[in-house]
Amino acid sequence: MSAALPRHVAIVMDGNGRWARARGGLRADGHRAGVTPVRMVIEECVRHEIGALTLFAFSSENWGRPRDEVMSLMSLFVESLEAEIEELHRRGVRVRFIGERAELDARLRASMASSEQVTAANTRLLLQIALSYGGRSDIVGAARRLAEHVEQRRLAASQIDEPTFAAALALGGIVDPDLFIRTGGEQRISNFLLWNLAYTELYFTDRLWPDFDVAAFEAALQHYAARQRRFGLSAEQVQAVDGGLV
Ligand code: FPP
Known about the structure:
Elements: E1 8-12, H1 16-22, H2 27-33, H3 35-48, E2 52-59, H4 67-90, E3 93-98, H5 106-119, E4 125-133, H6 135-151, H7 162-168, E5 179-182, E6 201-204, H8 214-226, H9 235-242
Parallel strand pairs: 1-2, 1-5, 2-4, 3-4, 5-6
Helix pairs in contact: 1-2, 2-4, 4-5, 6-7
Bound molecules: farnesyl diphosphate.
Farnesyl diphosphate binds near residues 15, 27, 38 and 76.
């Protein structure tokens, strides 16, 4: 159970605003600079054959930011998607979005839908981008969908167990993140993937997102590789599993 590489990495990309302010720029400049490390982590995940990467690009709470910042972020998402999708497809990346789409503007929704469609059959890396996403609302949505199934008598309440519930969440049945990374110095989950992070290894770094480079990502992977994951078992049990005794 000691792990070499994570199968799924989830990242909170924090620190863009501070990075820009420190250079006398606008917060939007920081978000723009944040596209470079996004490209880098995608490339590194492909290179390491990490199967899934989930990025927190915009939270349900981020709608409360100044209108200018929200608008510039939305334009950046459309622009980046349109500029990068061909290359992502060429690299075998499957793109998927999670979050409340209804709140996003029509052009962005159209780019998201076409990116998902074009890359649907790719299998090298599953790239999930959380846009207008909140972990609590994800859980409430899953509960509501299951309750509707029960109401429609397509499911018995007694059939609701952890796998059924997990399948109704935004990430569906895919493997939970093994490694969570948050840049920018805060040590919080901030309403990201609340259910799916139950046993995830948490890694926090002071590095601001635009400064997150290959070496910083490698340091996170090394931290993960050095961890012993216990999944609620005792250290002795885990050693026995690792040593092939169980
Ligand atoms: C948090 O930093 C970052 C965001 C709310 C936006 C993240 C967006 C990107 C990295 C742009 C590129 C993304 C894609 C998917 C193309 P912050 O603004 O809260 O920073 P602060 O804590 O320093 O204020």
